[in-house]
Amino acid sequence: MDIIISDDGPGVPEAQLDEIIKPFYRVSTSRDRDSGGTGLGLAITHEAILSHKGRLKTFINHKGGLSIILSLPIYNIT
Q1: HSE of 73 in the Cβ direction (CA atoms, 13 Å)?
Q2: Which reaction does this enzyme catalyse, per its entry (predicted)?
Q3: Nearest 5 degrees, angle CA 39-CA 29-CA 8?
Q4: Do the Cβ atoms of 20 and 27 come closer than 8 Å?
Q5: CA–CA separation, 78 and 72 (whole Å)
Q6: Least C-beta-crowded within 10 Å: which of 8, 32, 34, 60?
Q7: Long-range contacts of range 39-45, CB-CB < 8 Å, 24 or more positions apart?
Q8: Which domains does the chain have, with CATH numbers?
Q9: Please, what is the Cα angle at 65 between 62 and 51, to 5 degrees?
């Protein structure tokens, strides 16, 4: 099962796409504890997806914003 999350914000520089899933990483220097964000959201999400044998992929979408694909396996339990 794939879940795609996209926005039309300023996006993330392509060189930083792999960095944004690392704990405490923030793309913009304007984002700090006062303006919001700790840099943990995507890191926690990535670990949760991995623990379920899934994948998380980040890319720049056609609107210039960020898109994330969360892929999780579907098990047939009978």
Answers
A1: 8
A2: ATP + protein L-histidine = ADP + protein N-phospho-L-histidine
A3: 75
A4: yes
A5: 19
A6: 34
A7: 42/68, 45/21, 45/70
A8: 2-71 (3.30.565.10)
A9: 105
* Helices marked H in the chain: 41-51
How crowded is the C-beta side of 46, counted as CA atoms within 13 Å?
A: 15
* pLDDT value of position 78: 73
Q: Which residues contact 52 (CB under 8 A, 6 or more apart)?
A: 72, 73
Distance CA 38, CA 23 (A): 9
